[in-house]
Every structure is written in C-alpha cells, then in structure tokens.
From TrEMBL:
Domain Amidohydrolase-related per the UniProt entry, residue ranges: 291-427
Single GO MF descriptor: dihydropyrimidinase activity
Entry EC no(s): 3.5.2.2
A Pfam family reported for this protein in Swiss-Prot or TrEMBL: Amidohydro_1
Gene3D superfamilies hit by this protein: Metal-dependent hydrolases, Urease, subunit C, domain 1
Alphabetized SUPFAM superfamilies for the sequence: Composite domain of metallo-dependent hydrolases, Metallo-dependent hydrolases
Name of the protein in question: Dihydropyrimidinase
InterPro entries from the UniProt entry: Amidohydro-rel, DHOase/Allantoinase_Hydrolase, Metal-dep_hydrolase_composite, Metal_Hydrolase
A GO term from the CC aspect: cytoplasm
Biological processes annotated in GO: purine nucleobase catabolic process
Alphabetized UniProt keyword annotations: Hydrolase
Length: 452
C-alpha cells in the first residue's frame, strides 16, 4: 500500500511500555503500520525523524477555553496546544442549561479548532443534576465537575447558590447511571479559607506564598477525604482534579486501600515543576495554590508509582493585566504549549522519569479514562495523532511565540529542554518547527468528540 505519511528513523514512545526504534506509517488519518528499523513503504510524504521520539499526541483533559476570549478561544488556544504537541483537549463548559447552550459552543469550536476536542459539564445547581443523564446522551458528554470551592459565600460572587455536599452526593448518584462516566471534583474547603486569609491580608502579605497560606494543603486533603468517602458509598468513579499536595495524595492512597473506591488523580505540570516561592509572583496564582518543594517531590513519586493517573494543564488564556497583584489577580494561567517541555525538562532530564511514563499520563490514560476511542496510543488502527519530540532541543519560553490569547507565561524567560518539533492530527501536520502550519490556520479540521 501507499501511505500518506511515513515517519522513519524514529524512537517510538509506547506509553508505559518503553522506547523502541522503528517507523510509523499513516493512511486515511489512522496509523496503518508500525515498522521495524530499516523497513519502508512507499509514501506521499516521508519524514526522517533522525532518532527523535515519536509519541502519541497529548490528550489534555483539563482546559478552560472561553475564559479568555470567549468568541475566539478555540482558535487561539487550539493553535497553542498544537505547538505543544497536544492534539485533543477536554474543556469545561458551564452554563445555566447545557442542553441549550453547548450546541452553539460546539459548532463554533468546530469552525475554529485545529485539534480535536470534547467537553466536561460543570455542575453548579440542581437542574444540572436532574438533567444529567438526558444531557449526557443528547450531547455525548460523560464527564462532569463539581466545584467545592464555590460553596456558600464563596459561590455567591459567581452566582452559585446551590453547591453543597448534597449536590455532590446527588451528582454521584446520577453520574453512576451514565456508561463510562467520571465525576471530577475541585477539592478545597472554602469555608475555612477566610479564617486563614483575613489575618494575612491585615498583615500586608501579598507574596505568592500567602496564597498557599490562606488555602493550605490540609484544606485540600479534608475535601479529598469527603469526596473519596462519598464515592465509596455511591459507587461513583471520581477524579480528583489538579491535586496539588502530598497530604491530599496520601488521602487518595488511604481510600483506595481501605474502601476500594474508584478514584483517579490528576495533577498539573505546575504542581510538578513550581513552588510557592516561584519568582513569577501573581502570574503563578492558581487554585489550588502552588505548594512546597516536598509536595513537588511527593507528586513525582505519585507519577512514578501510579498513584497519579493523568496530567492536565488547567490552561486558561487571560491577559497579563489581570494578574498584577496577588489578592486581585485572576486564578490560573496558560500552559498548553509548555506542558510537554516542562515535564521532559523536570521529569526526564532532572529526575530520570522514563518518557514512556510521561506519555502514559499525558496520552494513553486520559484517553482511556474519558472514553476517547482511537486516541492515546501508537497502535495500528488508532488515530494518527502524533508528536515528534527533540529531547535535546533547548528553547527559552517566549509568550509571543506561543499563539495563545494570553500575552504571558509564568515560565517566560526560562530555558526548557525537550520540545515538540512536529505535531500531526489524524495524519495532517498542524505544527512544525515551532510554527502552526498554514493549512491548520486556513482550514482548521478539529472534530468534536462525542463519547456516548
């Protein structure tokens, strides 16, 4: 057969298996052949990878598109993702009624996105719970998120008045009725935060570490305990999203052991590479907060031993002007384009974590957890979502080159080693040598991934 694309002389990164020399053949948007070194087939385009890694395209299960520039986020942020080797994202959708609101967002995204995408439903009131099964089947969504940080007074500023433990428990009961469903939870005990925050502000604290002091690790761990306990009682699979601390990770281990609850754990690149003392200051303000160096070490141990299930960026593309002072700064920051380089730089080069372990947490496992068929593996029949990575390429992070609506990065000015040099979506090259291709700009072909 004649292939559409052949990547030769590659080091194939097989998630949680290893790295083997070989080649990848692509035809009709799918992986058509995995070839031994030196074996070849005729192809319309052949790329010599010169011994570089070829990995499955990354699946980022945690992005917030629409929080920067709602009308254009799927244009700019998808391009930023492509530069970072990310070929699939799952974005959080919050609306009064997703049955009415999501179709328009989905349709606009299909005209803009150069990568594939899906959604999670944000559950913020009882109508969402009551209509969860119906909306899931109608829109092909099987994953959801409860924001425990928006309980009580903290939720009023967002217009949320119904978020409580009852809503959490009821959402678990309903999610169990959806095949393959998983309920993500943001775990922070927001009711205690003011007790710790107000003295800090009166003392004039405005350093980044104050954000950790006002919402310390034990407030995350306490909420993780509650969610895991309810998950065991309801039998609902849950995912602790953006877990940030050693103490919270230990709670997951305990509940998995004692209650055999179905608990997944997601952490983020920033919790694996940055601490509360980061010099970027308010640019690195995020919920949950950046923690101590000991927490970074504990999370890497969770990556190694399998306690951590997936890695997601929690990407949000807002402007620098929203991040000027700690207490007024918006939460979150961009991270799609720098996820893989930061994980390779810190994990592979500095800590000796095998690249196949990182590939598992950024491709195979999120694809499996969220029911993304055909994604996340280098295997015949899977979508030809591929990223060629030069593990020795060093670049300085420059927000001006990252395509995001955001005009900053908390990593700006830092040198990272290990960058994507080519990104392929279903056989189409969408980024190469640090640039989004003209075809991806002019004719974005990202697809909506319905999972039911």
């Amino acid at each position: 057969m004649t292939l559409d694309l052949l990547l030769t002389n590659a080091a194939l990164v097989l998630p949680d298996v290893g790295v083997v020399p070989g080649a990848v053949g692509v035809r009709d948007g799918r992986i058509a052949a995995l070839l031994e070194p030196g074996t070849t087939l005729p192809a319309r385009e052949t790329v010599d990878c010169a011994g570089r890694w070829v990995m499955p395209g990354l699946v980022d299960p945690h992005v917030h598109f629409g929080f920067g520039s709602p009308e254009t986020d799927f244009l700019t942020e998808a391009r930023s993702a492509a530069l970072g080797g990310v070929t699939t994202v799952l974005s959080f959708h919050r609306s009064a009624d997703p049955r009415e609101a999501l179709p328009a967002v989905r349709d606009r995204a299909e005209t803009q996105s150069c990568i594939d995408f899906g959604f999670h439903f944000g559950i913020t009131h009882r109508l969402h719970v009551e209509t969860l099964v119906e909306a899931s089947h109608a829109l092909g969504v099987t994953s959801y998120k409860i924001y425990l940080m928006y309980k009580g007074q903290a939720g009023l500023s967002k217009g949320f008045t119904e978020i409580d433990d009852g809503l959490l428990f009821a959402a678990m009961q309903q999610a169990r009725r959806v095949p393959g469903a998983v309920l993500g939870v943001h775990c922070e005990n927001v009711e205690v935060i003011p007790v710790l925050r107000d003295p800090l502000r009166r003392a004039g604290r405005d350093d980044l570490a104050a954000w950790d002091d006002q919402s310390p690790d034990f407030l995350e761990a306490e909420n993780v305990h509650r969610v895991c306990y309810f998950a065991a009682k309801t039998g609902c699979p849950v995912n602790i999203v953006h877990l940030s601390s050693r103490e919270a990770l230990e709670e997951v281990r305990r509940h998995r052991r004692d209650h055999r609850a179905d608990i997944s754990v997601e952490t983020c690149p920033h919790f694996l590479t940055m601490t509360r003392d980061d010099p970027s200051g308010p640019l690195a303000k995020v919920n949950p907060p950046l923690r101590q160096a000991a927490d970074v070490d504990a999370l890497w141990e969770g990556v190694r031993d399998g306690t951590v299930t997936t890695i997601g960026t929690d990407h949000v593309g807002r402007k620098r002007e929203t991040k000027t002072a700690l207490w007024s700064a918006t939460n979150g920051f961009p991270g799609l384009a720098t996820m893989l380089p930061s994980l390779i730089d810190e994990g592979v080069h500095k800590r000796g974590v095998p690249i196949e372990r990182i590939a598992a947490l950024t491709s195979a496992t999120p694809a499996r957890l969220y029911g993304l068929r055909g994604k996340g593996q280098l295997a015949v029949g899977y979508d030809a979502d591929l990223v060629v990575v030069d593990p020795d390429l060093t670049r300085t992070v420059d927000p001006a080159t990252l395509e995001s609506y955001a005009d900053y990065s908390p990593l700006e000015g830092r040198s990272l080693t290990g960058w994507p040099v080519m990104t392929v979506l279903r056989g189409m090259t969408i980024a190469r040598d640090g640039r989004v291709t003209d075809s991806a700009r002019e004719h974005p072909r990202g697809r909506y991934l319905a999972r039911l």
